[in-house]
Amino acid sequence: MKKILITGGAGFIGSHVVRLFVNKYPDYQIVNLDKLTYAGNLNNIKDIENKPNYSFVKGDIVDAAFINELFSLHKFDSVIHLAAESHVDRSISNPLEFVMTNVIGTVNLLNAAKNEWKDNFSAHRFYHVSTDEVYGTLGETGMFTETTSYDPHSPYSASKASSDHFVRAYHDTYGMNVIISNCSNNYGSHHFPEKLIPLSIHNIKNNKPIPIYGKGENIRDWLYVEDHARAIDVIFHNAKTGTTYNIGGHNEWTNIDLIKILCKIMDKKLNRDEGESAKLITFVKDRAGHDLRYAIDSTKLQKELGWVPSLQFEEGLEKTVDWYLSNEEWLTNVTSGAYKKYYEEQYTKR
Ligand code: NAD
Ligand code: DAU
């Protein structure tokens, strides 16, 4: 029986990865380590919490002594590392928090894994989940490939780039069995409503302005979160040590076009007159250092490991809206308390 540590499994993507692994691999023991920050929520994985091959540990990856003890207690076979501070806007107001979790936290995990696994690195895998934002921004053409140079612009992407470099350094220096994937923007259920799509769904439902940064011309490449989880499964089991894979949906949208489609879907679902939700669109001050365009070339993953995205964007968006509309309690819970303060600080001054 394999024992796998998944970090950040109470967050958006991590919860989908934990669910996939717990259900698909009853022979694996999955240990979910999460600090339960504002973004972590055990309700995200309520459906699997009583499964015999699943357990949860609350803890902070920044706490090196705790992490070392955890590794020595559990004797993990492998790690899939997703825990991170993930929101660009928060990194602009509080960069140090991102350095602590994303850089120091990752190095703590690498050190603990190195100490435990040093006699047989090849039998133990450290999978680091990263982002396309490390590559910086594209102009109107081109795509990010696995060999694109790193050029991060936000404190968030700089911290993720730094963690990627550390992961590669532990492969090159110590011979650890590491893999990295860099994925584009995810969307789907359980996405915290500070991010564009769930924030807009929440605001449209409550007849509040939809804040679009700048002119809404920035482009993101959207991938359904369950497709990302499937890619992580395929890469974890099949990639060669030391390799990197880009994951993306070949699905680029300007923010404004995306929001217009979302408004149409919301009009239909909420029985509103066509065009009613779009009246909520409000252009606000741009994000500092706002990357213009991301686009992932996932040819390597598709050709070498046979992964392909499964959903068309409009189908995925509709599924996502349905989930939010039928999980009102989830949304109410995460948008009460601290969220209100964050929202005011982030948006009332714009
Ligand atoms: P998220 O913010 O929804 O979840 C992060 C999780 O990490 C939360 O459960 C949080 O409690 C936990 N966490 C934060 N700090 C911690 C700490 N110090 N110790 C232990 N746990 C801690 O993030 P997400 O969107 O699910 O992203 C997961 C990973 O995927 C991140 O590494 C992110 O960089 C990467 N990624 C995200 C996207 C995206 O579109 N969301 C795309 C590509 C890559
Ligand atoms: O590309 C992968 C990255 O995607 C991940 O690494 C990050 O963790 C994840 O948060 C996401 O980053 P973005 O900054 O692209 O996502 P966000 O939802 O914050 O913003 C998407 C686009 O929408 C971006 O161009 C900024 C814009 N935006 C965002 C918000 C929150 C708005 O116009 N208004 C908003 O209120």
Q: Can you tell me about this structure?
A:
The chain is α/β, with parallel strands linked by helices and 350 residues long. It has helices at residues 12-24, 64-74, 88-93, 95-117, 155-174, 196-205, 225-238, 255-269, 299-305, 313-325, 328-334, 338-347, and strands spanning 3-7, 29-34, 54-58, 78-81, 125-131, 177-183, 185-187, 210-213, 219-224, 244-247, 252-254, 281-284. The strands form three sheets. It has a seven-stranded parallel β-sheet with strand order 3-2-1-4-5-6-10, with helices on both faces. Helix 1 links the parallel strand 1 and strand 2 (29-34). Helix 8 packs across helix 10. The termini are far apart. Nicotinamide-adenine-dinucleotide (NAD) is lined by residues 7-8, 10-14, 34-37, 39-40, 60-62, 82-86, 101, 105, 129, 131, 160, 183, 185-186, 192. 2'deoxy-thymidine-5'-diphospho-alpha-D-glucose binds next to helix 6 and strand 8.
